[in-house]
Amino acid sequence: LRFAAPNLLISLGSGMTIPFMSLYFTERFGFSSEEVGYLFGGGQVLMAFGFLSGPFLLATLWPVRAMMAVHLASTPFFLSLARAELAWIAAGAYLLRTAFMNASHPVLKTFLMEASPPGLRELQNAMLLSLWGVGWVVGPLIGGVVLDSTGGDSALLLYTTIGFYFAASATMHWTLRPLERQLEAGKRAGG
Fold it and tell me: What distance in Å separates the CA atoms of residue 29 and residue 21, rounded to the nearest whole number?
């Protein structure tokens, strides 16, 4: 559960917001469906770059610090989305947020495999993916209710997502950082 809890918080936050980003861009900035398609396509390209940055992050930082760094680095872009008055700033913030947040996935999977005993890796991974799915079931339901009750004001969702990302980073620090320290000590002692 220590691996899955931060992931649940992230999926709740992103699940509340990301499914409604097309509405955000069409209602707030008048994007056409084609423009939203290009933006989301660009987001997928940057997501792939985020995934590919995992080995660099692991070579530069220890896993928990790397994950916390990219999650916290994405929050100014969510803040920009909440406050943006220019479409190009919002689009850039969306793209950069996508790259940063998705850089953590391969880092988390690698850390999970290194830190879990062989007999528990499959169970840990199943818990991680299951709770991610729960967040993406519950998050959009909450997001839809919030949007309806605020007349479509997405700023509250974006601010709430920032809160979830901070909570996830704090949870990582409290639950995964001690495990990371044990791995560091083991690698130093063995190497």
Answer: 11
User: Which has the closest alpha carbon to 161: 133, 134, 140?
Assistant: 140
- pLDDT tens digits for range 46-83: 999 888 887 787 777 788 888 888 889 999 999 999 99
Residue 59's CB is within 10 A of a number of other CB atoms, namely: 8
Work out whether the CA dihedral 132, 152, 44, 170 comes out positive or negative: negative
Query: How far is it, in rounded angstroms, from Cα 25 to Cα 131?
Result: 28
Contacting residues for 162 by C-beta, under 8 A, at least 6 apart = 13, 75, 78, 79
Tokens of 126: 């199943």
Whether residue 133 is predicted with pLDDT greater than 60 in this model: the reply is yes
| 191 pLDDT higher than 70 | no
Whether this prediction's pTM lies above 0.85 is answered by yes
Query: Which segments of 150-176 does DSSP mark as H helices, in order?
Result: 155-175
Question: Phi/psi of residue 10, each to 5°?
Answer: -65, -40
